[in-house]
Specification:
single chain; mainly alpha; 2 domains; 18 helices
Length: about 425
């Protein structure tokens, strides 16, 4: 959300520039993965060996626009964001329907759409495929990010959550399918224009799909390319605002619940300033590297782990039975077997891999021979006696070097000193 809003305005300009010269990239003879558009707009660096660089002032100004809109929405409160949501939710569908009609009239669009919906059965057992699918669902439904619980806290107690969940889940799936058909329909047209033998050659993953592949395809439209470029990026801008308003409102709700004496306007401005300051990092030449790093390690995988442990907590600590009784108390309906099975056992596939870490740790602890459990636990964090090179002579020299190092260390080191020596000594 942070980056999509920031790049949208500048990406429109980049698309318009290429429209004036449809073959600015050499068209058929220029490999798509070498298209320099990302360097024109993002000033993207090829590596970050020398650091991430300095922010681009134009992108910083573009970033300021969405955060100003978000701040004003937060100041108005949840009722205001609810009213704004009508526009933020309806407008993208209008644009998507227009783009879908246009995509269906393009040459090669059918090939792109078929590429999107045709399963690749040879990859069905790859773990990363399922990981990508799960994280996509998590992000599109904002599961484990607090948004759903925050918005539901403003509902009436007896609100029909079963109906709401069903509607939101179905609409989310249909919207994802609709967006995919539009994007890959246009990409299919791009592959046709470039005479590419395979659509894979013109597809980029991540942010490159929306900000490089799609703009280049729109630039090659022969009918109103400027209109479709503006419509597409305005849609991305609106979607980014909508997503970020939800996340920012969640943070604001948590702060206001913990510190009710704080003024809403003060909290809103503080959130906007912090969010804007963090977003500046992504406007640097190395910002995309930071984005990819945080996306995987700080968001995608973390959300998946949190979801699994959340399911385990509610299913086996709070209890599936009690959840079902609570729902019956709220709605007056009994929960079906399908939901009970999902809540109780839906986490098992993930847990079978992740829970091996604590399982083997417990096994190692039980295998130790020390009589005292403290000594047993302490020795679990030390290498075994046979650890080292396989060659006996090298093994002896290795253990001698380790012994000399240990003897050189002070015996009365504090825990903080040991941590410091472990990293910097």
């Amino acid at each position: 959300s942070i980056t999509s809003s920031a790049y949208a305005c500048d990406a429109i300009k980049a698309t318009s520039n290429s429209i004036s010269n449809p073959y600015v990239h050499g068209a058929l003879n220029y490999p798509f993965h070498q298209f320099p558009r990302s360097k024109d707009v993002l000033k993207e660096a090829s590596t970050i060996h020398d650091g991430i660089g300095t922010p681009d002032w134009r992108l910083v100004l573009c970033l300021l626009v969405p955060w100003t809109c978000i701040c004003l929405t937060l100041i108005k409160g949840i009722k205001s964001s609810g009213k704004v949501a009508y526009f933020l939710a309806i407008f993208p569908y209008v644009v998507m329907l227009v783009l879908l009609v246009r995509a269906c009239t393009l040459e090669g669009a059918a090939d792109g759409m078929l590429y999107f919906i045709k399963p690749q059965w040879d990859r069905i057992l790859e773990a990363k495929v399922w990981y990508a699918a799960v994280t996509q669902v998590f992000f599109s439904l904002t599961i484990c990010f607090g948004n759903v619980m925050m918005y539901s806290s403003y509902n009436r107690f007896h609100n029909n959550v079963y109906r709401d969940v069903t509607i939101v889940s179905i609409m989310d799936t249909l919207t994802s399918m609709l967006a995919g058909l539009i994007v890959f329909g246009v990409i299919g047209h791009l592959a046709h224009v470039l005479d590419a033998p395979d659509i894979k050659q013109v597809v980029r993953g991540g942010a490159g799909l929306a900000f490089i592949t799609y703009p280049d395809a729109i630039a090659k439209f022969t009918f109103w390319p400027q209109f479709f470029a503006i419509a597409f990026f305005l849609m991305l801008f609106v979607l980014g605002i909508g997503s970020n308003v939800g996340m920012a409102t969640t943070i604001m709700t948590v702060i206001r619940d913990r510190f009710p004496h704080l003024q809403p306007a003060l909290v809103a401005v503080g959130i906007a300033v912090v969010g804007f300051a963090i977003g500046i990092i992504y406007t640097t030449p190395g910002g995309q590297y930071v984005l990819d790093f945080l996306d995987f390690y700080g968001a995608s995988f973390v959300a998946l782990v949190l979801a699994v442990f959340e399911m385990m907590t509610f299913a086996w600590i709070y209890g599936v039975g009690r959840i079902c009784r609570d729902i019956e108390f709220m709605l007056g309906i009994k929960t079906g077997l399908y939901w009970r099975v999902c809540w109780a056992f839906g986490w098992c596939i993930f847990a079978a891999g992740v829970l091996q870490l604590p399982a083997w740790a417990i096994y190692t602890f039980l295998k130790r021979k020390e009589p005292d459990w403290r000594d047993r636990l302490l020795h679990c964090f030390k290498p075994t006696h046979d650890w080292g090179p396989e060659d006996p002579e090298l093994n002896a020299k290795y253990h001698e070097s380790v012994y000399k190092h240990e003897q050189s260390l002070p015996r009365d080191r504090s825990l903080a000193r040991r941590m410091f020596d472990n990293v910097f000594s």
